[in-house]
Request: fold
Amino acid sequence: MTGRLFLVPAATAVSRHTRFVLYLDRGLALRFDDPRAFGRVWLIADPAEVISTLGPDALELDYHQFVQRLAGHRRQIKPLLLDQSVIAGLGNIYVDESLFRAGLHPLRTAATLTDEERRRLYGAVHAVLEQAVRCKGANIAGVFEAGNFPVAVYGRTGLPCDVCGSPIVKQKVGQRGTHLCLRCQPVG
Ligand SMILES: [Zn+2]
Reply:
């Protein structure tokens, strides 16, 4: 969910957010830093023990497969996209950013999306994730402080929407803080 991996010289001092250090050959160490302590580390013989519960990677789905993964769900689109057993790879930040770019309210249900809306969502998910990978993530204080992904809504409560100037609002959707522009993302 959060956290970063660092390959560092083994003698590097740990930070206060270091949760795990794996000492490697040649004086190196793989360090896992996770300010929010939501991450997990497993020691297992077969990766399938952990990843077999995950759905397909969002970036590996074509449009037809994406539609199939969402089909038949009456759930709200935001919790559905966050469900890693449906589609893997989208966390809270990138779901909010994808729904904003697609112009979809997070409380819409998957079953009510038109084909055109599903195409917009598919395009937005891909564009957001590809950009996030290029940018090495976003830089959100206390959440993930690393990259330079340009967030449009996440963590921008009260600031003007880049598209229409309306203030970004924050609501709870499925227990998760959710950022959106009510003008760009109408309820329907
Ligand atoms: Zn807007």
The longest strand covers residues 4-9.
